Amino acid sequence: MKHRLAKIVVTVALVVTHCSLLNAEDIDLFVGSAAGTNLPNVLFVIDNTANWNTAFANEMTALANTLNSMPENKFNIGIMLSTETGTNNNNISGGYVRAAIRTMNASNKQAYVNLVRSFDKLLDKGNGGASGVTMAEAYLYLSGGAP
What we know:
There is one protein chain. The protein is an alpha+beta fold. It has a single domain, classed as 3-Layer(aba) Sandwich (Rossmann fold). The chain is built from 5 helices and 3 strands; from the N terminus they run ααβαββαα. A 3-stranded mixed beta sheet has the order 1-2-3, with helices on both faces. α3 (56-69) runs antiparallel to α4 (106-118). The longest helix has 16 residues, at 2-17.
């Protein structure tokens, strides 16, 4: 579980540090900024591949609690998953934005917490082995590129 949590933290950190749309100075993270203007964009890239089995409930609870405890109107948050496989969800390898980056106001925060709590470890299982393509999709999303 520690390895998986570390993987999620590193993934989020890489996406945030390589975000070319982030125009705020580092100091803005600590002194705050007005709601809706120059807020840091944070994209949670969730590893929902086949190994999502054992610690699934704990990880989704931790993410829901993190989202719920974030201060309002200080961040723009989005959620990305690997493309899903099986039944009617077949798709090419890569990632997709499950929830677009939006300002975490009270209503968006609750909607994202509810979304994370609704993830199903079988129905939302992603295609394994496509982490590199998923990260490329995250870069394209954050830089305004075509998927």
